Write a sequence for this structure.
């Protein structure tokens, strides 16, 4: 990561520069109408891992993917009639829809934390819209703050929280809404409100915190169906070993011991192990520093699920 974070006022040049950085796999902070987002190419797992690295999140929460319009959204997710109606009513705007993920979607599995659903939003802000147009890829973007601190509504908030950890902030002044988007799940059955926000959707029922879609409910996120053993340097006969560094395994998170690469591959390899012939999964030791903390958190939850 760069040690100097630049702030550029929103302009065509600033967006061109931001798009270049994003194409090179780096996350960039940009204004939306709700809060500033930390945007990266949602189809590039390494780029998404760098979002988590910059935020210092202790775990992997599924992220919201931003797209320029409903047509782009329907290439990634499956929209029911009700979901289309909501999208037509509120997009572009501060509404996020959680819908089933298409099997053909190019989204990196780290974005959804391995879930079969995806959160999608068409933002109204011209800066984020311009960036989407310029990059031509869906952008994963959580709020642009370090884990555990409040969401940024000004470029200065982003700088205070993530200065030195990201290369660029596109400053478009204070955000209009100042509150994160409303999240509605349209994954079958009644529409469910998962997060309150600027938009009131009368027909949605309150989401239940024991449901897999509930924001922040990390314990209920994707876990493999097989028993999982941690800190394994040798596989038992019925185990699929997910390796790291020197511990080769049946598949390796990162042969060079790079935690960004390991985070990027984590959910793909958990799915691979789950789909393998072996009855159990073992995982090599992963160091606890940096992104390793988030990887270990996810593995602990999978091991005790
Ligand atoms: O206003 C906003 O929504 C801002 C701006 C930048 O667009 N973004 C934002 O993203 O708030 P983030 O990552 O901070 O919040 C994502 C929320 C989390 O609470 C997460 O649990 C939920 O969306 N979420 C994402 N994917 C989900 C899924 N597949 N199922 C259920 N919840 C999901
Ligand atoms: Mg947030």
């Amino acid at each position: 990561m760069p040690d100097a974070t630049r702030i550029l006022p929103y302009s065509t040049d600033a967006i061109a520069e931001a798009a270049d950085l994003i194409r090179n796999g780096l996350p960039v902070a940009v204004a939306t109408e709700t809060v500033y987002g930390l945007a990266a190419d949602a189809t590039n797992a390494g780029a998404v891992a760098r979002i988590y690295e910059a935020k210092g999140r202790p775990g992997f929460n599924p992220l919201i993917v931003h797209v320029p319009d409903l047509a782009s959204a329907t290439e990634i997710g499956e929209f029911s009639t009700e979901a289309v109606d909501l999208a037509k009513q509120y997009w572009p705007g501060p509404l996020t829809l959680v819908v089933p993920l298409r099997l053909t979607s190019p989204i990196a599995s780290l974005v959804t934390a391995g879930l079969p659903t995806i959160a999608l939003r068409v933002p109204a802000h011209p800066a984020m819209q311009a960036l989407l147009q310029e990059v031509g890829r869906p952008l994963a973007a959580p709020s642009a703050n370090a884990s555990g601190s409040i969401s940024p509504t000004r470029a200065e908030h982003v700088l205070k929280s993530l200065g030195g950890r990201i290369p660029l902030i596109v400053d478009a002044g204070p955000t209009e809404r100042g509150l994160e988007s409303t999240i509605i799940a349209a994954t079958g059955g009644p529409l469910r409100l998962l997060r309150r926000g600027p938009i009131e959707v009368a027909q949605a029922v309150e989401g239940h915190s024991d449901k897999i879609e509930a924001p922040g409910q990390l314990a209920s996120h994707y876990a493999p169906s097989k028993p999982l053993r941690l800190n394994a340097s040798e596989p038992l006969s019925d185990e699929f070993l997910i390796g790291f560094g020197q511990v080769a395994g049946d598949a390796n998170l990162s042969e060079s011991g790079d935690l960004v690469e390991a985070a990027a591959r984590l959910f793909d390899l958990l799915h691979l192990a789950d789909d393998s012939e072996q009855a159990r999964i073992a995982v090599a030791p992963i160091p606890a520093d940096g992104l390793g903390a988030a990887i270990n958190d996810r593995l602990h939850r999978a091991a005790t699920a």
The longest helix spans residues 259-275. The CA atoms of residues 63 and 111 lie 5 Å apart. Confidence is low (pLDDT under 50) at residues 209-220. The domain at 6-217 is CATH 3.90.870.10 (DHBP synthase).
